[in-house]
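User: Predict the full complex structure for these chains.
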Amino acid sequence: MKTITHTRMTISLSAIALACSLSISGCATSQKTSVDTVAASPGLVTASFTMPSYQSVTLDNGLNVNLMVQKEVPLVTIDAVVRAGAVNDVTSGMAYITSQSLMLGAAGQSKADIEQQLDFMGASIDTNADLEGSYIRANMMSKDVDTVLNIFSHILRQPDFDSAEFDKLKQRETVGLSQQKESPRAVIGRYFNKLVFGTHPYANPVSGNSDTIAKLSVEELRAFHKGYYQPSNMTINVVGDFDVADMTAKLNKAFGDWQTSETVVQPDLSQNLPTLTQPHVLLVDKPDAIETTFLIGGVGIRYDNPDYVGLTVVNTILGGRFTSWLNDELRVNAGLTYGARSGFSPYAQSGVFQISTFTKSSTTKEAIDLALKTYARLWEKGIDQTTLDSAKAYVKGQFPPKYETSGQLAGLLSDMYLYGFNDDFINQFQAKVDGLTLAETQRLIKQYFPQQNLQFVLIGNAEKIADIAAQYGEVTKVDITATGFGQ
Amino acid sequence: MALLMTIGVLSAPNVSATQAEDINSFTLENGMKIMVLEDSSIPNANMYIFWKVGSRNEVPGITGISHFFEHMMFNGSKKFGPKMFDRTMEAAGGANNAYTSEDLTVYTDWFPANGLETIFDLEADRIANLDINPEMVESERGVVQSERTTGLENSNWRTIQEALKSVAFAAHPYSWSVIGYESDIAAWTLEDLQQYHKTYYAPNNALVVITGDVKLAEVKALANQYFAPIPAQAPPKAVRTIEPPQNGERRVFVKKESVSTPNIMLAYHVPATSHADYYALDLLSSMLSQGNSSRFYQALVDKQLAVAAETYMPMSFDPNLFYILGVANAGVSAETLEQALIEQINLIATQGVTQQELEKVKNIKLMDFYRTMETINGKANTLGTYELYFGDYAKLFNAPDAYNQVTPADIQRVAQTYLIKANRTVGVLAATEESDK
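Assistant: Here is the predicted structure of the two-chain assembly.
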């Protein structure tokens, strides 16, 4: 998305999955102004929001598909989610490059032919991978389902991995990595995961790096595809304007004869998780930087953590909405930044917690110190009832729009598969928020927010900020143009 | 065949999709127009307030003030003092944001439907009774300076566009970026801000769009209670400057050391959105850059000359620019990329486009239309945008037909008319500038 207009909103520095829909920005006052938090009106009852109905169907070959009808617009989203991501990489970037390579031609049809066909219908198929999953998403008008589903099944089941196209892809991706490093915001999360997880697979940068991508071969991709892209290791979610019986028949025709042929081997991600025993600072030198972009944090929580919802509420108060403590102090009171926030990014077996913001080079120390001081309020002062009530109203009120479109709902079903949660996530969300007490927030703060041995990533002009970096822990310095995302 | 299929879809829209007759609108006595779309798909609603003021309404010395003022609208009014706008809204389960463009300043409130009255109360108070506090102005300057800096740090597009606009426009206020010049951000005064509020934030200069799980009667009652008492004011002065014709190519170079390969931005003057050529230009934009079957992808990305090539044509009250941005592949010079981009444009001007290619981008537009209409926010923002830029929200629902009427000859004609050298500004962003030979 081009940044043509100017908004009050900041862009998140990393995927902060727990944070609700945020509007970080804009309102300022002096530090002298004393303002109480507004209590949620006791008479204001949020209308209930429940999981839209859907059907789960098992095809003849055991492949699970979920079908959710949404008739607001004549569109359909079809998602396939495969349990294979960067944590499965043998060579860094393998899952991601495999996902990108699915589009390089399939079942004998060239990349250009496929793209021409899809574009002509106004349809699209996008492929991607993250740490723990690979995704194929098709969007189309309802009238084009047959044609698009046919292409979709070819891409998923019979990618050609054309070697000439593969060489071009690798070249584009390598240059793309250099360009991503022109924007600190685009890459800082990868440096942070490497700093926190070290040799654990959760440190793997999904993108790979320029050296590893150059090494990848078509044969490796074929092996990765064969090993993981199988009916027993995936699910398909269809959301939109279609008839369930008709769609089930179409899916059976497209996928019913596809047999699982390999034993899927998954890494045990519960092993060798990091224990952070001292604070570290990774200083990423970008000599022409005009500001310092930074993350502070540590290990977070698993996706299936029973306290997930409660932590959403507590984090909302700390750094998950415009009036959060972090945004209020760093932006509104001090005018140091355009936005500051915090959040948990949960994975299947672990996760990260991060505070993120940016400031001009000359105010780096002031901003870091203020972020740390504000964070410390969690333990020093805790949360009061009025603030808790407001945060509870906020997370409930902002919840439904996160699951409004076919794409959002298909993505929810994909996450349910990958991370092992069910409809209760939606249906019990409100009750769990309502049930959160002040005493519980104290337990959550003590149990989950990393207080000691914080990890820091600072991207900026090292000549100006190296001395500041050294004040927060043992410093490792890397050049932003160096291969990869830290040591 | 494809054309028939497309028209078939349009003439028999899905029964659940929003249609023009679903929109209700009324105008208060003070001139404030309010549009309402009832939609109970989720238990939420939103309010979008479009103010007809943007960087277009500024003059040198106060550039960026429209955007800065947008920030100040959250900083306290009579009933809801400092910080209370956000705190009150969030306690009612709502969130908000705002954006400023060259033409508009738009405030967006997203809330559970039962918070509607709170939102009216909050908005009415800051429209009628904004209190601009000097201390807040100083703090907010730092915020906007940080917003400007982080944009330049993280976005090559923003860096090069800022320089290019200043060259492409000799007279019209589209010459400066929406965020404004650094020195102006540091300099504007309390009086400047107060005058801005008084001039532009009058109900007769606004359009309100409310969509979601609300009832028209309820909205009418609340609008009459909260917005109707705010007095109308004399309309703001019209923007008088008309950009003189460009009679020769202009160029600008921007140096940024961390840029790994050159970025090329081309910009051509094009008419305002209300002009009949809008649809042909918009389709031409899609032909060049939308999807991997597009001309730029095929000729530049697939051929390893560029890693990305995009187009952008903003909706606009006055004649504005049609932008093209290419990012060079490794080892490709700025000159080579520039020539390759221009060659693709000239191919359309000289050889035209096929019916098949045109049908393709029409289908892409139809898909985009449905996607926009999938959320209450997409509906609110787009309804307001069409009402203001086309003069009638109903044009949104006519848009697929308007696109359908464009012919290959129209595409070739607009390319020949607007995308020519004499009407072009070229921007180059790179780590080093070539030395004199």
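Residues 272 and 319 of chain B are 4 Å apart (CA to CA).
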